[in-house]
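Protocol step 4 of 6: structure prediction from sequence.
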Amino acid sequence: MKLWNNLEFTHPQFLWLLLIIPLLILWYFLMRKKDIATLTLSSTSSFKPSILSRLKPLLNLLRLLAISALIIALARPRDVSVSTKINTNKGIDIVMAIDVSASMLAKDLKPNRLEALKTVATNFVNKRPNDRIGIVVYAGESFTQTPITSDKRIVKNTIRQIQWGQLDGGTAIGMGLGSAVNRLKESKAKSKVIILLSDGVNNSGFVDPKTATELAKELGIKTYTIGIGTNGTAPFPVAKDMSGKLIFQDAPVEIDEELLKFIAQETGGKYFRATSTSKLSAIYNEINKLEKTEIEEYKYYNYNEKYRSLVILAGLLLLLEALLKVTIFRSFI
């Protein structure tokens, strides 16, 4: 039986004995009336009860408090503190391979594809507290922005700082996938996952996407692929004006869905198409649900017994009652 948040009774059935306290009070009251002698006088003005006689019921109060303390002590009150330890050895190692080519500045997602992705990816990281996450960026070449780490602050800072123009132009899907596989090949995690996002067609790089796919498959690395971009046309950056501001022009959206589907199917993952910011967010939420992390939680209970202090209190109350009987209240007993 628990009382409040951290106090419990090991043997709460003994608390029923507290019901005898009202009976004892009634018994003391009746016995007091019986023990008081009566004397009829014409006037009682000269007989005033002394302070000690009025305080005599204090002895019974001390005894009742002592009995109450002993009953509560029998119920074994104790403080319980619980400490929790979470074993994250069964977490998932995840690498997000993010396309940072110029086409990621297209405005079919608001405010553009790259900024929409950064917001959604950050929310995804917040939902994976027990996993290690790494970031790979790629365009015409690839680069490991952040190795796999459990420090979510570093991962989120990395995502926030991703910008277009960090790498050579083009879209090297094979190199992006290859770098992500390289980050995970030494991982000891139970599950290894890559989330590869692209908005174009593989047109550069010296790593064949299918070769990188076979390597991921051999290493047991599941790959979720996301094609980002609306259907039809979208405003793409095509040049810069005299002030350096980007000029946008509508152009057809071309995504190598066949390749992305192949990568996902061969590695046991799944292909998604994000045609809007809300769809992109829904995709990451679905991946979050598909990849459940096994968490082992251990609870340790620490008990601090309180009955000893109650027994000591009861003993002191009884001792005080006995001392008062043989000293101050001796002539009234």
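Step 5 (inspection) to follow. The first strand starts at residue 2 and ends at 3.
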